[in-house]
Structures are given as structure tokens and as C-alpha cells.
Amino acid sequence: MTEKKELNNDEEISLTEIYETLRDGWKPIAGLSVLGAGLGIALALVLPKKYETSVYLEPPLATQFMGVNEARTTLTGLKWVSSEDLYEYFLTQLNSDAGRYDFFEKTYLPSLDKQPEGELAKNALYAARIKNLVTVKEPVPKKGRQLYSVTVQAPSGELAVQWMNAYLNQTQDAARARWVGDTQRVIDATIKNTEKDVAEKLALAKRLREDREVRLGEALRVAKSVGQQAPQLTVGQLPKQDSVTSFADGSGLYARGTRSLGAEIDVLRAREDETAFVDGLREAQAKLVALQGQNLSNQPIGMYRIDGQLLEPAKPVSPKKSLMAVLGLLLGLFAGVGLVIVKKATAQRTSATGAA
Questions:
Q1: Rounded to whole angstroms, how far apart are CA atoms 95 and 90?
Q2: Most buried one in 70, 198, 214, 326, CB count within 10 A?
Q3: Rounded CA gap, 256 and 217, in Å?
């Protein structure tokens, strides 16, 4: 019990001594605290300012790519372009390292007073700065706005807006070029297939005409041999000795007579174009013309739209004067307390050494 009381007394004396020490040394503590706060504010004024601007992105409106669908009639066989189709290309480019590097090389580097020397220095600068320059955030399911967001950081508010526009425009241009290239390849392949289909239809029609000439020629020789000049028909009826089948399979063509057979042979031999006699050929030709009229390169195609407005930031996000002042104040306070305690301990040790 006696040892416990002595320990409590020692603790009370220690706390009392510390309080008295800090009370007596309040001037250096206060001075260092004020000095620390001042240094924090001064550092905040010296450090380069950083401004940020952010936007939320949405799929484009139909009016942003209306011209593409106006040319996609039913004859083309092409499906209508949707905003989701275009927006998917845009998001792929937005999340790509290629898009960020393109922005770094075309927009960020030209803004620097001093360019990096060599490829290695440029790559090191890219690795160090790109994470802060451009930040793309995907929507979190069931949390907040279900939209992609982009944040750009720059040395000034005006430059932040310019860089945001540059990044989005560069991303859209690259995504549009990819979409146009992919779509044009599909159209070109469809045109080739349609041209091949038309050529095959015409070739088939020519072969069928030639086969018809051969059959009619043989029937003409038979008709001449039997002296059949006029068609072997009664009033609106087939002759009783013949049947419909013989006319259908060609074995009875001679019964049409030499005049009819010769006239058809002359017409077939004089024919120069099979187009009018090919089923579905006109539709294929119309489809070909419609596909060849697709001109994607001259069409205004929007790949995204901003939800709201792109605003210029009024205040920098860093450095923050208040935060720097508080940190400086705390560091000065800790430094002052440590200094006073060390001085007190040093004085006590000196006194004890002198007394000994």
C-alpha cells in the first residue's frame, strides 16, 4: 500500500512538473507554433497551384448522328446505328492507355516550357504525371450516378477547361475513326458480295439463254424434218396426241412449228442484256447503289455528350492554405513542446551534476 501511494505521488508530481514546464515555456511554444503556421501558409503560396475540372458523360443523342441513319434505307440491308453502339467505341478509347498517351503527347507536352530530353525522360514524365492529369472513373453499381466521369488537372482553371475539351475531342476523334473504319469494312464487304451476286445472276441467265437456244435449235430441226411449220394446236387446245408434259420438258417443242421456233431463236440470239429477265436482279442493283452511296467520312458523328456544363474551377484543389497552416501549426506546437521539455531536462541534469 505504501509503495502504491508513493507511485501515485510520483505520477502527480511528474504531471505537475510537465504542466509547470509547459506553462513556463509557453512563449517558445507559441512562437514556434506561429512560425510553423506561417511557414505552412508561405509554402502554400510558393507551391504550384493545381486546378481540377470534372464532367459526367452520357451516350450521344440521336440528333448527333442522324445523318448516318438517314442514308440507311431498307435496300442497304444495314441496321440503324444506335447511341449505345457509338458510345461503346468512345468508352473503349476513353479507358485506353493509347488515348491518355495521345493527350500527353499532343496537349500536355507542348504546354511545357522545357521538353524532356530523350524518349526515356518522356516516358518517365508520362508515368509520373498521367495519373493526376487525367482520371476516368467508372460508375459504381447501385451507388451514386451511373455515369462515367472524367477529371482533368491543370496549372490554371482556364487551362483545365481547355485540356478537358482537348482530351474529350481527341478521344472522340480516335473512337470515330475506329468506328468509321470498322463500319466501312462491313459496307465494302457487303458491296463485294452484292456485286458478286449480280455477276452470278447475269452469268446464270446467260447460260440459261444459251441452253434455251440449244433446245429450240433441236426442236427446229425436228419441226423441219416433219414439215411442222405452224403450231400444232386446235382452237385453244393441245393436240390429242400430245400432252402438257411434252411441252414442259421440251420433248414436244417441235410442235410449235418452224416459224415460232425460228422467231424465238432469232430473238434470243439478238439479246444483248439479260437484266430484264433475271429475277431479283433489279433489287440487287438497287442495293448496290444504296451501299455505294454510304459516305461516312463526311457525316457529323457525335460519340458522347456531357451531362451538364463544363465549368471553369474558381479555386485550386491544391495546395490548400488552411490545411497547410494547420499542419504547420501542429508541427510548430510539437516542436515547441519538445524544445521546452528538452531544455528543462537538460537544466535538471546540469543541476544534478553540479550538486554531485
A1: 9
A2: 198
A3: 12
DSSP state of 111: G
**Helix or strand (DSSP H, E) at 57:** strand 51-58
pLDDT of residue 120: 92
pLDDT range class, residue 191, cuts 50, 70, 90? very high
| C-alpha cell at position 39 | 511557414
Arithmetic mean of pLDDT, 175-195? 93
Question: Given 1.20.1250, 1.10.287, 2.60.120, 2.60.40, which CATH number is that of 196-292?
Answer: 1.10.287
pLDDT tens per residue across span 55-81: 999 999 999 998 888 888 888 888 999
- How far, in Å, CA of 192 to CA of 284, rounded? 12
DSSP assignment of 305-335, as one string?
Answer: EEES-----SS-SBS-HHHHHHHHHHHHHHH
Which triple of cell numbers denotes residue 337? 513542446
C-alpha separations of 288 from 127, 165, 183, 200, 319 in Å: 50, 40, 16, 14, 63
Task: Please tell me the predicted confidence (pLDDT) of residue 210.
Answer: 87
Do 324 and 41 form a contact (C-beta atoms < 8 A)? yes
Task: Kindly tell me if the per-residue pLDDT of 10 is higher than 80.
Answer: no
- The domain ranges of the chain are 28-47+320-341, 196-292
